[in-house]
Specification:
Helix content is 74%, strand content 1%. With 330 residues, the chain is mainly α. It has a two-stranded antiparallel ribbon with strand order 1-2. β1 and β2 (99-100) form a beta hairpin.
Length: 330
Amino acid sequence: MSARNSSSSSSSAVRKKRSRDLGSSRSLGKGTLSRKSSGTSGTSGSFSGFRDAAKEQKEAEMILERKEQARQNRLKARGPSRVRKVAIAKKKIEMVGDIDVVRTNKFLNSLDEDWVARLEQVNQIAAYLENPDISDEEWYHCLNSFRAALGRQFEDPRSIVIKNICDPFKNILMSRPELFHTYLPFFLGKMANCFSTRIAVIRNNAQALAIFCAVNVPDPEPEYPIAKYIMEEGMKHRQADTRCTFIRMFNILMQKFEPEDPETESDLSFLELIEQQVIRGVNDAGVKSRDESYKGLHIFSKINRTKYMDIKLTLSKAKVRRYDEVTKNL
């Protein structure tokens, strides 16, 4: 009985050992197979990556070819261009001498706070106009280009600007006074507000500039542009000092007036305008304006005695006394 049990136990032990050896051999076989399969799959993956990159490159080339073919087809369908090619002109910079017209006008019209730089620009314009080598056409072109910008400077409320702007303006005026008379009415309109400002420096310099203009700029017949501007526009101002300044200018222009003998039609028409101006002046609301008009009446007595007497007879006794007081030393 014991022998049978021992044989059965030994046989079972042999079976277990065989099963263990068989399991280990199977697992070893699987590991070897798996290593082989993994090596094979890595190699096949690298080849497949190369094939994909080549395929993508080929597809990109085909897309570019199709785009180029489509572009060629469109050009072929359109035919030759029916639109004339126009060359785009380059922007031309307008220059007056060495002065950039657009840039200078923009800077001066802005009334930039840097008034010294503006004054330098005005002096540069004056220097160009003072050049005796330029023609009258070039002089006109320059002043026409910068007229508005120069007049704009009189709108600056700072006294130091107006005081310093008068000197280059006189230089411009004296460069060719025989041509400047057509521009003087415009500049008088720009200066008019300065004649009556409360700031004494601005007022005195502007009035002195106006008198300087009246003395040095001729007023050619038969148009008499300066005198007509004073009579038609200057006397419309509400400020007494402004009207007084224009009356002083008109008196200077009357001193220049020399009617021909016998008097022409233009002389007679201008004498009528002078008569109207003197009558308006002696009846002005401002005391200074009336006194300056009495001086004008005295000047008118040397031009046409008859009309002078007609005006004087219309004055009141008080005005006649005041006229005698104002003109006794003239």
